[in-house]
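Exercise 7b. Backbone tokens:
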């Protein structure tokens, strides 16, 4: 049996807007974005996890090491915290973004943690998951509420919980694991702490201090959650950041040196030869060529 959304305007809108829980700025919840012209957007260090629901039109998205991926209406993808995001939205397109730190419900968080073994067997490739029933009418109702000015904290909290409820009821575990892969771990709170803070500190000792954990406990948990030592992981993130910068059109070696905190061009040259087996100039050529063929 098909259902039809009966459209009507929000009643008593002034009472709704004057509610002390009305959200003028969305910190955790949903935000509708509609693009009247070709629009570029960029964020260098995402402060939240963003789940993007593409409602209409086509989008070109670059996120960390994944460049110029094309997404269409009916796709959804996760942008994890601390990511570097660039995108182009075509004229007439729209998307709904869900901003969140961790799932509000402990049950939802535990379910995601339980998928860590499945994630171990997935090669993550920033591929979208399709929006299908019953998320389709859920997003229609949510979009309609937002367009009509219903934006209190109650709505955002309720709808986020409903989203996770529908997701775990009508999507396969493999799909959920693939969608949330970047943030899933055996200790999701610890993983989220690391992702939220590692770019704010200069070294591992400062990160340990922020965690309020003992050194041995911190290193043990880090190994368990990330599958490598903290030193190896930080080095991997730095190398990935270098590769991302080298892929950018018109990249300047001097800017990379300054942004990533190298003391001199000589030190950067030695670093590239040690970790990438080539000079910075050769690395730029390699990354630019790989980006053109991806």
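Sequence design result:
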């Amino acid at each position: 049996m098909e259902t039809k959304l009966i459209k009507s305007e929000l009643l008593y809108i002034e009472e709704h807007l004057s509610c002390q829980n009305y959200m003028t700025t969305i910190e955790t919840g949903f935000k509708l974005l509609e693009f009247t012209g070709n629009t570029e957007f960029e964020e260098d260090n995402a402060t939240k996890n963003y789940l993007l629901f593409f409602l209409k039109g086509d989008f070109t998205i670059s996120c960390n090491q994944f460049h110029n991926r094309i997404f269409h209406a009916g796709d959804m993808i996760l942008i994890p915290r601390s990511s570097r995001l660039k995108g182009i939205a075509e004229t007439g397109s729209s998307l709904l973004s869900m901003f969140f730190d961790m799932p509000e419900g402990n049950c939802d968080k535990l379910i995601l943690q339980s998928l860590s073994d499945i994630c171990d067997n997935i090669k993550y490739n920033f591929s979208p998951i399709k929006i299908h029933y019953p998320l389709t009418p859920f997003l229609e109702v949510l979009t309609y509420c937002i367009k009509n000015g219903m934006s209190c904290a109650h709505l955002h909290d309720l709808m986020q919980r409903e989203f996770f409820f529908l997701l775990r009821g009508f999507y396969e575990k493999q799909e959920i694991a693939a969608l949330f892969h970047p943030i899933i771990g055996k200790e999701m709170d610890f993983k989220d702490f690391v992702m939220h803070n590692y770019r704010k500190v200069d070294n591992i000792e400062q990160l340990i201090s922020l965690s309020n954990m003992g050194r041995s406990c911190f290193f043990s948990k880090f190994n368990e959650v990330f599958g490598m030592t903290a030193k190896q992981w930080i080095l991997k993130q730095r190398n990935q950041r270098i590769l991302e910068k080298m892929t950018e059109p018109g990249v300047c070696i001097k800017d990379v040196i300054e942004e990533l905190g190298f003391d001199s061009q000589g030190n950067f040259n030695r670093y590239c030869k040690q970790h990438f087996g080539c000079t910075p100039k050769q690395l730029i050529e390699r990354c630019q060529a790989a980006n053109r063929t991806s």
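Instructor comment: The beta strands are 29-34, 39-43, 49-56, 58-63, 66-72, 75-79, 85-89, 94-100, 129-130. Residues 26-183 form a domain with the Jelly Rolls fold (CATH 2.60.120.280).
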